[in-house]
Amino acid sequence: MAIISVSNVEKIYNPDTIPVHALKQVNLEIQKGEFTAIVGPSGSGKTTLLNCIGGLDTVSSGTIHIKNIDLTNLTDKELIKFRLNHIGFVFQAYNLIPVLTALENVAFILQLQGKSTKEAHSLAKQMLDSVGLSERIHNRPAQLSGGQQQRVAVARALASQPDYVLADEPTANLDSESASKLLDIMERLNAEQGVTFLFSTHDERVIRRAKRVVTLRDGAISSDANQ
Amino acid sequence: MTIQLGWKNIWRNPVRSIVVISAVVIGVWAAIFISALSNGLTSHYLSSQLDTYIGHAAISTQAFWDERTSEHIIPNEQLAPVIKALERDSLVKSLTPITIAEGMIASATYSSGVQIRGIDIASDTTCFNTHTFLTEGSYLGESYKNQIVLGEKLAKKLNVKLRSKVVLTFQQIDGSISSAAFRVGGIIKTPNSAMDQMRVIVKQTDLQQLLGNATAVHEWSIFLNDAKAVNTWIPTYKQDLQGDLAIESWLEKAPELAYIENSMDLYLYIFMGIIVLALVLGIVNTMLMAILERTRELGMLMAIGMPRMKVFNMIISETITLSCIGAPLGLFLAWSSLKLMGKHGLDLSAFADGLAAYGMSSVVYPDLKMEYLITISVLIFVASLLAALYPALKAIKLKPLEAIRLH
User: Per-residue pLDDT for A1 more than 80?
Assistant: First the structure.
């Protein structure tokens, strides 16, 4: 059974003034453990699709089911709770909390889930260790390189034991070496722990390493191929 | 966790946080200090008025208070049981009889209308403190008859000095006009220069003799241990007095003093309100800036699953924490400055003449009312809570996606 099921999704911005069709009749199914890249030129709708799957944006029509839950029927409060417990996010600009250390950034999401500080810190340490940052746990984001910050973001995304991780252009701000290191980690986590990754990108380095590539053009899926 | 993050957020921009804390400190200090100073000024003014000329309560005939003519003397035999009761009353500190005549004082160069107060020195000095403001001579302590004590300003106007002669003219009890020469035995300068020009003090026996009644008393002045208790104390005596006798508290005798006290409370609350409003606006402005700077981060927090209520609590906790640091510091600063000023007072001698015209001393000792302290503390807490509400509401209204997209 698909972990993510997108059916006939349309997204229209400014429907009452100058309508912009960001997504047109998108149908997509993602199975558990997939390592999928959504690619396409700028404005093709890949980020919009990712945001809709992440419960950050609403659809104009169609449904998005995560397991058996229809995201389009959830209230704002329910969506926040859903995101906390089911989705991991990796943003293009890392988006870490600058006043917290790497350990605290990762532990934060666990504490939001209700775990004690001690338990959260212990799990966060393990997560940071798995992304190769055990030596940097007490550093604040400003003391880390871009690649290291993005690895903290990956650790944070995985710490909450989500059903899937959404990564919006995760390597866009990274140099080749950092990007490669990050992809190595994501691939390893996917292979070893079966973490489902879905990322939007137009970075060839990422596209080459994805197991499945979904191409969007003008808001519609133009191709969907396994590599 | 939320509070911990709030605390770290406060120190993200230490300068801004210190500015907010300083604003709270100065706000609390100013509110308390000005309250204490104003209260001290009012209390001192009240006590100087009551202790110098008015007293806490007085018994007289209603006719005397209505007409102010010396014929309306107190029937002593009727008042005697009341005086005995007053002397036994533990709330009463002291009492003194006063003989009063409205008349004229004249020197070779000037004349003026005055109230002539004939006092019993022994009991008067246990009630009023007028004798403590003697600047020259003695307070009716000379051996000769017909001594008079004048205020310094009146003496200047009359152009008289110690041992100079002045003539008092007034109506006797039988209605005839009488004049008598008095020699200046002492000159006083009380904090109330206006009163000093309107009243002169002579020995009660001298005035009684000149009025034609050796036992004539027009008013008994009463001092309680606590001037503020007069309202609850006076009703029992109001019922006991017979005939034309009447008792009045200082609030009835000098309603303008009660008005000053009440209006000062009102002014202080208005003043506190202005300080708190300025504080609220300052905090709102700073917190809004902080929210604006962190829009993207707040969006990210909500995107990864931080409930809006926790974001709200985080912003509130940041503001409350700033106030909770500032308020005790402000309280301490206020306490220290009041303690320091309590010893020496605030010297306003540069404005001494102006203050004296209003019956105020040139050295003001702050006096902090506990109710003001509690009100200010509660106001600051409520104000910081209110100041936090708008930024916090603004923060939780952010749409995560739009906030994250901001650069």
Answer: no
pLDDT of residue B371: 83
ipTM field: 0.91
- Residue A137 is which amino acid? I
Looking at residue A64, its pLDDT comes to 95
Which residue of A56, A85, A113 is in closest CB contact with B401?
Answer: A56
Domain C-terminal end among B209, B227, B253: B253
- B372 against A65, higher pLDDT: A65
Choose, out of B304, B313, B318, B399, the residue to mutate when testing the contact with A (most A CBs < 10 Å).
B304
Residue B84 CB partners (closer than 8 Å, separation 6+): none
Chain A hits for B9, CB-CB cut-off 8 Å, are 99
Looking at the fold, whether B225 and B86 belong to one and the same domain comes out as yes
Distance from CA of B402 to the nearest CA of A (A): 9
* 3-state secondary structure (DSSP) of residue A159: helix
Domain check: are B72 and B39 in the same one? no
pLDDT in tens, A33-66: 999 999 999 889 999 999 999 999 999 999 999 9
pLDDT at A32: 93
Could you tell me which residues come within 8 angstroms of residue B281 by beta carbon, excluding any fewer than 6 positions away?
A: B387
Residues in chain B with CB shorter than 8 Å from the CB of A81 are 305, 307
Q: What is the pLDDT of residue B358?
A: 67
Contact B114, B198 (CB under 8 A): yes
Q: How far away is chain B from the Cα of A99, in angstroms, using its nearest Cα?
A: 6
Q: What average pLDDT does this structure show over B373-394?
A: 86
Residues of B in contact with A98 (CB under 8 A): 12, 297
pLDDT grade, residue B356 (50/70/90)? low
Q: Does A13 touch chain B (CB under 8 A)?
A: no
Number of Cβ within a 10 Å radius of residue A194: 10
Closest CA–CA distance from residue A227 to any residue of chain B (Å) = 31
DSSP states of B370-403: HHHHHHHHHHHHHHHHHHHHHHHHHHHT--HHHH
Contact A112 B1 (CB under 8 A): yes
Q: Which residue of A has its CA nearest to B8?
A: A99
Residues 6+ apart with CB under 8 A from B198: B113, B114, B115
Mean pLDDT over A145-159 rounds to 92
Question: Do both B279 and B392 map to the same domain?
Answer: yes
H or E element that contains B365: none
Same domain, residue pair B94 and B197: yes
State which H helix or E strand residue A156 sits in. helix A146-159
The shortest C-alpha distance from A194 to chain B (Å) reads 21
Instruction: Report chain B residues whose CB lies below 8 A from the CB of A83.
Output: 303-305
Same domain, B240 and B143: yes
Domain extent, residue B247, equals 55-253
Residue A117 sits at the chain B interface (C-beta within 8 Å):
yes
The fold for domain A35-58+73-226 equals Rossmann fold (3.40.50)
Q: B3 exposed, middle or buried (CB, 10 Å; 0-12, 13-18, 19+)? A: middle
